Amino acid sequence: MLIVMSGLPGAGKSSIARELGRLLPAPVLSVDPVEAAMWRAGVDRGQPTGLAAYVVVEALAADVLALGQTVVVDAVNDAEEAREQWAALARRLGVALRYIEVICPDRALHRRRLEARQRDIAGFAEPTWASVEARRANFDSWREDRLVLDSTAPLTGNVQVALAHLGDAR
Q1: pLDDT, tens digit, 9 for 90 and up, residues 14-35
Q2: I need a labelling partner for 96 at 20 to 30 A (CA). Which of 15, 21, 73, 147 fits?
Q3: How far apart, in whole angstroms, are the C-alpha atoms of residue 2 and residue 18?
Q4: Residue 74 in 3-state DSSP?
Q5: In the structure, how many helices (H) and strands (E) does the chain have?
Q6: Fold (topology level) of 2-169
Q7: What is the DSSP string of 95-127?
Q8: How many whole angstroms separate alpha carbon 39 and alpha carbon 162?
């Protein structure tokens, strides 16, 4: 199964993705560390490294799925084209696809989380609140079925809801 996480930076999707990966168990492939690795390798930040990171994660996900294993993709996935990329991969490999969107409807809490987080991704600057708000304004509407989780709810409850949702797909 291909599980695709979606949501704005700081909304809480990575926390849920990590727990899903631990409990299923399944590898969690995140776009941000891949992009940061490109920069550390000398790829110019002016290049489309964000798009390239999605393509690299897709290739890795394809390899994991070809082994018959579940994989969790952790990325913003705010563009319809990004979500179609995962749908095409699932179709090509004949695997189930499940989208999970994580939202934080409390903007003050979302901002506090974003500004307080410290991920250990060498060379990757955390996004600003202004950049998150800009992404929110341009987040493509969904056509695909998805589970929406509110990250103001406890992590354990959200993970249990996600596992139940994913269990229905198996």
Answers
A1: 999 999 999 999 999 999 999 9
A2: 15
A3: 15
A4: strand
A5: 7, 5
A6: Rossmann fold (3.40.50)
A7: --EEEEEEE---HHHHHHHHHH-----TT-PPP
A8: 33
